[in-house]
Amino acid sequence: MRSCCFASILGIGLSMAAQAGEDIKVGVVLPYSGVYASLGADITDGMQLALDLYGSEIAGRKIVLITEDSEVKPNVGLTKTKKLVFQDKVDLLVGPVASNVAGAMRDFVHNAKMPLIIPNAGNNLLTGEKCSPWVIRTSFSNDQINRVMGPWLYEQGHRTLYLMAPDYAAGHQMMAAVRRGFTEAGGEVLGEEYPPLRETKDFAPYLAKVKAIRPDALYVFFAGGLAIQFVKQYHEFGLKAEIPLTGAGWLTSPLFLPAQGSAAAGFIGALNYVPTIDSDENREFQFAFNEKYKRIASEFTVQGFDTGRLIVEALKITGGETADKAAFVRAIHAVEFTGPRGPFRIDPLTNNVIQDIYIFETRQGGYNIRHVVIDKIADVQDPPNGCVM
Length: 389
Ligand code: PHB
Fold this sequence. Notes:
By secondary structure, the protein is an alpha/beta fold. The protein is built from 13 helices and 15 strands. The protein is globular and about 65 Å long.
C-alpha cells in the first residue's frame, strides 16, 4: 500500500515536473468551412484576444491553440478530436459550434476524461441527460436561449406562432423550448418547418405556407449563411410587413447584418449578448476587439473571449498544471467574472453557464442598423434536466 501510494505520488510529481516549461496545448475543433465557418472564425479571434489581454503564458508555460476544421460534420469533428488527443497530445479541448457535432464528440471526451469547453454548440443533452464532469459549456443551452421567449411573446399579445429551423438537433431543441413556454402560457403553434441544414438556399416553399396560414408571428432559428438567405427572402417575399419575425437572436448577428442590411430591421430576438449592451466591460471589450480586428465583435466572439478568459483564470489557479484534469475542472468552477455579456459563472450542477438573456429589436436608424435591448432576464440557470454528475 505504502509503496503503491509513494510511487503514484512520485509519478504525479514527475509528470508535473515534466510539464514545467512545456506548452499548454489547447485543441480547438471549430468549423472553418461550411455553413458555420464565420462563427468558427469569430470564436477563434475572441479566444486569441482573451489570451492577449489576460495572459498567454502561465507559470512559464505558453498557451498555444491547435485548430482543426470540423466542417460542421459530426464524423469529421470526432476524427479531428481524436487526432488532437492522440497525436497532438493536447491538454484540453475547445469546441464545437454545432449541436450535432457536439453530440458525436461527447462519449469520446467523457471516456477519455479530457476537459472539453464548448464555446457555442447548445445541445441540451450535453449539460442535461448526457452531462459529464469533463464537458463544460460557456455559451448557452438551446433551451436557455429560447424558453424565455414563449411566455414573453404571449405577454406581447401574440396568440399563434409558426416555427421554422434547420433540421438537426439544435433546430428541434430550440423550437421545442419556445413551443413549451408559448403553449403553457395559452398560445397555439399553427405549424412548423425544418428545412435541411446544409442544402437550403431557397426558402420560398416554406414562406408560402407561412403566408397562407397567417400566424400572429413567425419564430425561427437560423445562423450562418442560412440566416443571411432567410432574412433577405423573408423581406423579398413581402412577409415582413404582414407577419412579425421573431426568434433565437443569432438571426441578425453583427456577423450577418452587413449582408442583410435593412431587410433585418424589425426582428425581435433573444440572445446572451448584443454589441449594444450598456456597460464598461462591454465597451472596453468592443474597443479592444475593434483595435485588433477592425470589426464589431459578435456574440460568438464573446463566447470565444469568455472561454479564453476562463481557461487563463483556471490555469492561474492550478499554477499552470494541466495533468490533474479534475483539479482543472474544480478551478473552472471557482472562476467568476463580469464580462462583456454580464456576470459569468459555470453552474457546477450541470456545467452549463449561468448568464443574463437579452431580448432585443434590430432597428434601423438612418443608415445604421443596431440591436436595441428591450428586456433582460437576469441570471438564467438551466434546471438539471436529468444531469447527474
Ligand atoms: C448549434 O448547433 O447548437 C448552434 C449553431 C449555431 C448557433 C447556435 C446554436 O448560432
